[in-house]
Task: structure prediction
Amino acid sequence: MRPLNSTNPKNKMKKVLSTLLVAGMFAVVACGPSAEEKAAQEKAVQDSIATAEQAAKAAAEQAAMQDSMSAVVDTAAAAATPEGEKK
Result:
């Protein structure tokens, strides 16, 4: 019979591999983003959304202004055209 405390190379390799596996798992978990980083990323997303909404609002206001100006120009052109010269 073998003694109970014999050093089997397979058992040593299993211990080494399991230790490396556990250390690797800790390294992966530790490398994730912190709560501060997550909050900063969420704030950046919200800021981007707000900027996009402001840009869309400004574009809509610009389009409305151009429509108003076109209507004024069309009205002025129609008023300047004599009644007999309609196309």
In short: The radius of gyration is 37 Å. The chain is about 80% helix and 0% strand. The chain has a mean pLDDT of 84.
